[in-house]
Amino acid sequence: MLVLPGIRWPLRLLLLLFSVCVMAEYCDNGTGECKELSPAECPVIFHSLHLLGSGPKYCDEFNDIVCCPIPLNQQNVQFLEGSRPSEKHCQEYNEARTACQSTPFIVGGTKASGREFPFMALIGTKRVNSSAPPNWDCGGSLIHPRFVLTAAHCLETDETKAERLDPNFDSLKFVVRLGELDYNSTTDDARIQDFRVVNYIIHPGYDDEDEERGFKNDIALIELDRSAVFTDHVAAVCLPLGSGNENSLVTAAGWGFTKEGLKSSHLLKVNLQRFSDQDCQDRLRFKIETRTQFCAGSMTSEADTCNGDSGGPIFVQHPQYPCLKQVIGVVSYGLVCGSQGLPSVYTKVHLFTEWIESIVWGE
């Protein structure tokens, strides 16, 4: 996560056009689309409010975003429950798991156990043919045997993309490690798999022109040089079926900095409380893009993510599969690490599911 200490944040953020930044957000298993409650965007709901005794279904009640019905002849059948590419593969991931560890909620940060989060990825840089260990800078989530989900700002470089990927060009190269627990230990419960990066795709709507305003559409995909071998130590996480707004508690994991100011070589986990959009903006003193971002932190402790956790997942238990998690957020940025009552900002994953599926599964 990028931390921007001591910055006087503006009261308003410049917003990118939603149509450029993210795909459409669907609801009610693909029979509706999240739209503004207005006569232009969703006339069928706007003009029928007096007939809806219990009120409309909201995607984002704070911003008056409702689930607007899509005409039957325009509904896309791939969004019906059980038919999305990512959901089909999630079922396959579940069938491949033979055992798993239960993950009870914890208070504050603590060390993760081996095999507890087999989808966690370390993302770092090193020079070709160098014997020095990589510099581990970010985290990520394995969502497919050959693809890792991470934050776009983790992949910013001084070179061109072609130079960074060219093994004959003298520069740092991205590397990915799966199955790790403590990268400074050889006796931990880990079975690592190391990979070169053959391609990475930053979301076309990613915006980092003004770091004082935070990142927009801070999400990216990394393609590995070969398929990961699924084991008890390496497995994929599922993409979300919906927004995940119903989850008031979420979990983060990573190898980032701790309150002592040092990076943790051992994978850490922490439970975080989701903040309402209004509470988030009041406490951060600036507006986040609530369609594509959410906030989480703690009102009672210093629980938080920090530098080095960037790109890592915010996840919840899968509602159907006890051995699987759903990644609902990507660690993006914050003001100060570990400040009680001051949340950090995360990229919502579900709004980018179509974009992810089009690259990972070609659908």
UniProtKB/TrEMBL annotation:
Peptidase S1 domain: residues covered: 106-361
Question: Which cellular components does GO assign to this protein?
Answer: extracellular region
Q: Give the coiled coil ranges.
A: none
Q: Which InterPro entries does this UniProt record tie to the protein?
A: Peptidase_S1_PA, Peptidase_S1_PA_chymotrypsin, Peptidase_S1A, Trypsin_dom, TRYPSIN_HIS, TRYPSIN_SER
Q: Which CDD domains match?
A: Tryp_SPc (cd00190)
Task: Please state where this protein is localized.
Answer: Secreted
Give the signal peptide as a residue range, or say none if absent.
1-24
SUPFAM superfamilies, alphabetized: Trypsin-like serine proteases
List GO BP terms, alphabetically.
defense response to fungus; positive regulation of melanization defense response; proteolysis; Toll receptor ligand protein activation cascade
Q: List the keywords (alphabetical).
A: Disulfide bond, Hydrolase, Protease, Secreted, Serine protease, Signal
| Gene Ontology molecular functions | serine-type endopeptidase activity
List the Pfam families hit by this protein, alphabetically: Trypsin
Protein name in the entry: Peptidase S1 domain-containing protein
